[in-house]
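Quick sanity check, Preprotein translocase subunit YajC:
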Amino acid sequence: MTSLLTAASAEQTQATGFNPMNLILLVALAFMIFMMFRGRQKAKKAQEELRSKLHIGAQVMTNFGLFGTVLEQNPEENQVVLELSPGTTATVHSGAIAKVVEPVAAEEAPAQTAVETPEETERRLNDEEK
């Protein structure tokens, strides 16, 4: 009985040419293609932003954790010369630059908190218990 129902539904699907599973697969494929293009666009935008910030004198960090200052750029050969410490330079591929390090401004530094005396600590703790 069930085989007759299955065969009848298969014939009906073939007759109409519409199968919901095909629609689901097409939507999933379209979504995957959209996400691939979107990821590429985001990566390209991030790379362009990094290159716009990269200039001589900028503090940078490489993908392998070295921090340095840009001394020279050679866009034709994709090379950047970094000064790691005074007198020590390294030539790296421009793609190895992970980010441009922004200097921390003085007002962004955390403020020093006043040291609390033991009496003030005891008073504060007693007030919290109430």
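Posting the structure with no commentary besides this: The helical segments are 2-16, 20-53, 118-129.
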